[in-house]
Design goal:
Alpha-Beta Plaits, two-stranded antiparallel sheet, 17% strand
Amino acid sequence: MGAGGADDIAARLDALLDESSLSDVVAPGELVAVKMHFGESRVTGHVRPRFMRRVVGWLQKQGARPFLTDTNTLYRGSRADTVSHLRTAVEHGFTHQALGAPVVIAGGLRGTTDTMVPVEGRLMTSAGIGPEFVQADALLSVAHFKGHEITGFGGTLKNLGMGCASRAGKLDMHSTTKPYVKPSCSGCGVCVSWCPADAITVGETAEIDDGKCIGCAECISVCPTKAVGIRWNESTDTCQRKMVEYAMAVVATKPGRAGYISFITDVHPVCDCYGTEKISIVPDIGVVVSLDPVAIDQAAYDLVNAAPVADGGQLSDGYSAGSDKFRDLHPDVDPTVQLRYAEELGLGTRNYELVEIA
């Protein structure tokens, strides 16, 4: 674990990587898929290029050949197709010249190309994964830990399961959630431009056609008046479990060849895909590294909950350190479903030892 401000984190990142066991999962000459999130256009909800340059440099010291990668999004944002996605990556400073490694968008021009990977889960038998993740020799997940309106929080499991899935896979995971419009809707129409299924019309208020709705929940994220909600039942639990099974499929293609980094910095209250700037809910905590995707998410979850609340953030006044901040943000979502289910399936363990790197 590394802690402190941005300058301190950058300076200590090399030492953190050197002290970790990540060198066990990469070998000289191998192609390493570095799975990350390049951020929505003009929003800072992503790991900074200055940090990724350190990660790339460290991998190259091991003799590996890294490339930065992500899949296209299900919703209509600045990363919905490969051309727009690459333009956004460049806009945010993720270039070959700056980082020393190329950016490769996985899954083809529109995210429809995938490799079907068998899954020994309880909900599905196969998962559509971006071929680049399957074909790479090794995988390094670099997640930005934050809150999430459907899964409670998004970390390594989400970076793997949701982030490596093809568009069809993303749809499969989200299709159990169905949003509705509250009477407080102003009829502004912002949600219409983000809906990938053309399921929303606007009169005095917005209306969602359940027959067309694919459950991606982007309307929830972009609504400026918080007038869109989800019919909370078991749908969020199912979405989390499907996400875990997709993560399991990704990891299954890399036995002993996957490692995980999680940046607990700029911990925003909702998904980074939300196309507006957000305020962190806690001060920057640091970076954690592990070879266990469950343990690293559990550690990040615990560290955020143990931290004090950031000034000016979304959490309620006086919310104490040690309380579950993600339940405060999303009270109808149980964020531990993904952790418990991943452990049940043998993807990893929720037990961990936290070692701080000086």
